[in-house]
Amino acid sequence: MAASNRPKKKKEEVGSELPSWFNEVAGIVLCGLGILLFMAMVTFSPVDLPEFITGVPRDAAVPVQNWIGVVGALLAYSVFCMIGAAGYLMPVAMIWLGVAYAVMDSTWTKRKWIGLIAFLITGACLLAVLDGPLRGWAARLSLDATEAGETVYLTGGWIGFWLGTKLLEMLLAKPGAIIVLSLAYTVGMILLTGMHPVKFTRAVVTILSEKWKSFRENRSEAKQKLRVERDKQAEKDKLRAERQAERDADRRAAEVMKKGSARKEDELPLDLPSKLAKAKAIEPPKSAKLTKNEVKESTRNVPPPKIVDASQRRAAMNLEPGAKPFQKKKSDNPSLVVGGYENYETPGFDLLDYDDAPPDESQADKDELIETQSIIVETLKAFGVDVTAGDITRGPTITRYEVYPSLGLRVSRITQLEADLARATKAERINILAPIPGKDTVGIEIANDNKVAVPLRELLQDEGFTNAKKKIPLALGKDVYGNIVIGDLAAMPHLLVAGATGSGKSVCINSIIVSILFKFSPDELRFIMVDPKVVEMQVYGALPHLVVPVVTDPNKVVSALRWVVNEMEKRYRIFAKCNVRNFDSFNERTRPEKEEIPEEAEVTEAEEDVEVVDEEHIESIARAFEDGDLGPSASQDEDELEFEEEVPDRIPYIVVIIDELADLMQTAPADVEGNIARIAQKARAAGIHLIIATQTPRADVVTGIIKANIPSRIAFQVSSALDSRVILDTKGADKLVGKGDMLYLPPGSAKLERSQGAFVSDEEVEAIVDFCSNQCDQKFEESVQQSIESGGSDSDSDSDDGVNEADEECYLKCMEVIKAEGKASTSLLQRRLRLGYTRAARMMDILEDRRIIGPADGARARDILISIE
Questions:
Q1: Which DSSP letter does residue 260 get?
Q2: Is the pLDDT of residue 337 over 50?
Q3: Nearest to 756 by CA among 486, 478, 556
Q4: CA 854, CA 866: separation in Å to the nearest integer?
Q5: 219-254 pLDDT, tens per residue?
Q6: Each residue of 830-869: pLDDT tens digit?
Q7: Dist. CA 862–CA 567, nearest whole Å
Q8: Is the pTM of this model over 0.85?
Q9: In which region does residue 53 sit, left (phi positive, over 0), alpha (psi from -120 to 50) or beta (all else)?
Q10: How far is CA 144 from the centre of its chain?
Q11: How far is residue 302 from each of residues 307, 370, 400, 543, measured CA to CA in Å?
């Protein structure tokens, strides 16, 4: 069935016996001949023809006019005699075929040559039947024939004359011959160029309509621009005339006043007082420098400050019991749901705690905020920095005080006073935004004495979380202005989270996992969780979304990542087989309808209970297996066998969560870094996403390769500015106050967003996991588990000494190091291959077992027992 449904490739007549270089050589030759023929035909003159053709001796004193010489004249004359003016199509067609063969990798087929011959002959016949537009051209080139005592000029050559005029026009008359020849000419052109006529016509019409539309738009824009320029010029001329009139009036007034004659007062123009007043009003100031008082007046011209309390929680929505942010859609096609998860329901809001009671807000709190802002303004003025108070925004964790710098003040002078402002406000640490992105103010952020937690339920109830545009929404937190921060893992497409111990990193990971559980069922999304610290993700051990149990052994993480890479490659092969580009296109593709089983073929329950065993058939199958007649052939590649597997109806997302990257980079840094980089580079279109967390963002942990492929980052409080630069490429994370205070770098943006991370308690996480696990049993992928346990390869691939494929690959690298260095030691392998001690010691044991090196002799390097050559 699968073989019958495959589209059959169209067979084309190809000269398979020709060598591979034949098309390029033939294309170059055709292009050269076409150019020569075109030059010969363009410069053809009957004067260049020899005496045996024209019957008139050629004057040797007259130079040959044809660019290709006498040979070119003879060649052009032959073409014109055969097909007339249609001969100009021959070099064009030859150049077209030459370019197609040499550049476009076209094949040498009979169809194109048949099309070329039909194209030229029908063109010659069509010109001969039309007989008129090119008659003067034929007479000038002496292309004529005599019929019944009259001279007939061969506009279509001899072929057009006999085939077009004498045959088709005599049989079909001129209109019929023109119609038939036009159709044949079009067919020949299609065979030659391979263009579909309908598509070609539509493309031409589309291009012409777009050009016409663009022309009209440009024309209207030009007219509008010209009209605006004329209006501007008219306004300039009007102003110039007014200024000239004022200058003339001022000059006349000055002359009158100079004479000092009061009796000539009546000679002054009537509008002189108004002119003088207007000139005085537009007179430039005496000094361009502003005084100190003028600067103060300019700084006061700002909006009145206001206090915004964004730390208040939103009122709880009136929800029915069991309400949830996403309702599971019932699929009309039951084959689109993995078996066992048809009745799965996502968690509801009632599993999360939410207290929307507003905290007590007294007038003393507002007075304290105003007092702090006045201290900031006075401290800056004490150092000669003149500012004006702006808005005050109190967020869940920090309060942002805005100030307006005076005119001519550099914001760098404010940032230099960071330590003095911290001393004056008695703040543990402050952060200065100079300026605030999108505003003309400078922000001074100070931590609140009483921090307000942001419950996860408040974020899940927001419209931004349930927005259909976000494929994998992540509830991250709330910014200082009270706006909900929602990320989309599918758009990131990978996330890097870093923060010191106690900064809120683990809570952020929990909120991300819970956000995903509120939308996806196990048949839509699967998790692979890596927890080297053992205790962080054990609460998720009962989730039905897990592909394999939580991986806690660092030595098995490389195998798990290698399986993810293999799964990614497998999905891309499936995409190529189904002619789709990415994960979404595959799941939304049009699937062929499955054939329904007729009622006569249905098996009754009684028939199902009866097993019909044909012992002779079983024995024949067993003998065939023993003889090797059945089963895959040894020459068949494993990738081909895997490629022939049945294509699933849909595939789920895979989210890989690594809770601590530093431990893995100490165990096998080269393998971990390489697999993470490969997944991050290619896995987005395959529906595989990474979430990596670490509490030690050092340069040897978060390497440049990992950072380059994971643009979205979340940074919590870190211990130094160097760690902040490693995770964010800028400072700022070292000035966070902890307890969920974070900096978020969204995808496709270079602007950091400071916000308070969402809070979800351990009790809420356990309740959600229990709700998910009680609906269905876990279904681990046994093949994946076996692959991880065996080091990323099947157990059958292990050699007799227990060395698997991964160890063999590392063994070959160790041999290269030994040959290059001429010695062998555990520390040498650790340095050259960036291996952990356990891995390097195992490689030394393998080398010793295979008698490559000698036994250990204290601290000395091992003896090499084989020739290095």
A1: T
A2: no
A3: 478
A4: 10
A5: 888 888 888 888 888 888 888 888 788 778 777 776
A6: 888 888 888 888 888 888 888 888 888 777 788 887 776 5
A7: 40
A8: no
A9: alpha
A10: 66
A11: 15, 17, 18, 56
